[in-house]
Amino acid sequence: MISVDWATYTQLLALVQNSIIAAAVLGIVGGLIGVFVMQRDMAFAVHGISELSFAGAAAALLLGVNVVAGSILGSLIAAGIIGVLGARARDRNSIIGVLMPFGLGLGILFLALYPGRSGNKFGLLTGQIISVDLPQLGLLMGISALVLVSLLVIWRPLTFDSLDAEVASARGVPGRALSIVFMILLGLAVAVSIQVIGALLVLALLVTPAAAALRVSASPVLVPLLSMAFGLVSAVGGILLALGGSLPISPYITTISFAIYLVCRLIERRVRGGASRRPRVPAVAEVAR
Amino acid sequence: MTRDPSSTDPAPVLSIRGGALRFGPRTLWSGLDLDVRAGEFIAVLGANGTGKTSLLKAMLGEQRLASGEVLVDGHPAHRGHRGIGYIPQQKIVAPGTPLRGRDLVMLGVNGRRYGPPITSRADRQKVDALLASVGATHYADQPLGSLSGGEQQRLRVAQSLADDPALLLCDEPLMSLDLQHQRGVSELIDARRRDHGTAVVFVTHDVNPVLSMVDRVLYLAQGAFTIGTPDEVLRSDVLSGLYGTPVDVIRTHGRVVVVGTPDGDHHHEVVA
């Protein structure tokens, strides 16, 4: 399988340099927004958005327009619907459950109608970053930067709202507006991630790194940093490994991401002595007071 | 314990004039006048569905009254009022929450601030002081989700005090705590109003944990209400009149038990 010699590998590396930079940025963005995906319990929403994003990208492919733009449009429509109709968690899951097959079905329809190269078709579902051209890479980077900066700006109010919407609102945090902004940012992050890893595997960049980080820390500083690092290692590592062989990038990314998660679980067991939660020492101390 | 609420000291911290709450054709209460002065502890009692929490939401500027007005510090209640601290009931922290005890308190200090989430030294010192004031320092670095209900509620008290509020609104803060922690948390709130003159509005379905602290009771029942000291309100004749049906108020071992209320609230007969 790995039959490429070192000289060829470095040549390839130069060719995909832009893709590696893009993957690094996407890994970081996915890791960062993943922290809020976990806190707001929205993993299922990520999957739902990604299917409509896929439909948008497929439609763009069929119409011969910018695939990234189509993907973003699909994402934003899904994020908007989920954000407006699914304010409450229970409503949200049913709305996502309804949207998801519809989006996937639309996407498959558009792809069936598309007369072009089949590699492009499959790529939307399972990843295709090598086939992204330079202007599109620029677009991906720009959007990633926008998501990153926006997240940092709303970080504290969004954390407050995620933890305790009632108290946050009493303290003047505009929860409704923040949720919609967050859904838009999530939509954008999903749309760009799809370009790297494909609609079906988006969770590996938007959920797994944060889930792994949460296993080993509860620090509001350490968790986002670790999550970003995990996302970056998964995305870039996936590309570097894939270059050496003939397999697509996505399985490498998902496997690295999953392996990191497993390691984090093992570390958690070691640190916390097998229990998933710390023993209740302070509670006992409090009673004794 | 009993101050005279009608004495002519400074303007009330909280003032409700002719307040009415209606949901569709149903009137929960109307003609509610209430002045809460600095340092006063008001318990809001009543069964589920009598509009206790809605009253609190009106004070927070999150619930519009059908008529009347709510003034906080002399101005109409509005969302995010700096002079109000809010303590909710204990709730389960989502498992994916990367926050420790101290971070909950930090959100009270800077949670509504936009911009890069960089914590200043002044904010950290403030949080340390708040943690110490509620005796939460020794578990402040534990993950929030791993703390007991009582530990969490101490942190929520600290969080609510971040802006040095003149009015504390508490919505069932002792719910699902054991007796030990009920006492600990209510004593914190009581100490605050004694030391800082903070007015307290305390919504609860059980007055007993705070009975010794309460200056006045606002008792809501079936579209009506009555206000007075616990001794004036928690009496068989008064509550029978309020409910329009015979109700017994039993005082036993320093506890108040109201028996026979027609609210259909199963828990109601063991509490006030």
Descriptive overview:
The complex is a heterodimer of chains A (289) and B (272). With 289 residues, chain A is mostly helical. Chain A has one domain: Orthogonal Bundle (ABC transporter involved in vitamin B12 uptake, BtuC), CATH 1.10.3470. Helices cover 80% and strands 0% of the residues of chain A. Chain A has helices at 6-15, 17-39, 43-63, 67-85, 89-113, 118-126, 134-153, 155-163, 165-170, 175-197, 203-206, 208-216, 222-243, 249-271, 281-288. The termini of chain A are far apart. With 272 residues, chain B is an alpha/beta fold. Chain B has two domains: 8-83 and 166-177 and 195-272, 3-Layer(aba) Sandwich (Rossmann fold), CATH 3.40.50; 93-162, no CATH class. Chain B has a six-stranded mixed β-sheet, sandwiched between helices. Chain B has a four-stranded antiparallel β-sheet with strand order 2-1-4-5, covered by helices on one side. Chains A and B meet through helix 2, helix 8, helix 9, helix 12 and helix 13 of A and helix 2, helix 4 and helix 5 of B.
CATH superfamily of chain A: ABC transporter involved in vitamin B12 uptake, BtuC
Quick one: CATH superfamily of the largest domain in chain B?
A: P-loop containing nucleotide triphosphate hydrolases
CATH class label of the largest domain in chain B: Alpha Beta
Number of strands of chain A: 0
By oligomeric state, this entry counts as: heterodimer
Structural category of chain B is alpha/beta
Strands side by side in the biggest sheet of chain B: 6-7-8-3-9-10
Q: Termini separation of chain A (Å)?
A: 65 Å
Sequence-ordered SSE layout with sheet pairings:
The complex is a heterodimer of chains A (289) and B (272).
Chain A: H1 6-15, H2 17-39, H3 43-63, H4 67-85, H5 89-113, H6 118-126, H7 134-153, H8 155-163, H9 165-170, H10 175-197, H11 203-206, H12 208-216, H13 222-243, H14 249-271, H15 281-288
Chain B: E1 14-23, E2 26-36, E3 41-45, H1 52-59, E4 67-72, E5 75-76, E6 84-87, H2 101-110, H3 121-133, H4 149-160, E7 167-171, H5 179-196, E8 199-203, E9 216-221, E10 224-228, H6 230-233, H7 236-243, E11 248-252, E12 255-259
Helix pairs in contact in B: 2-3, 2-4, 4-5
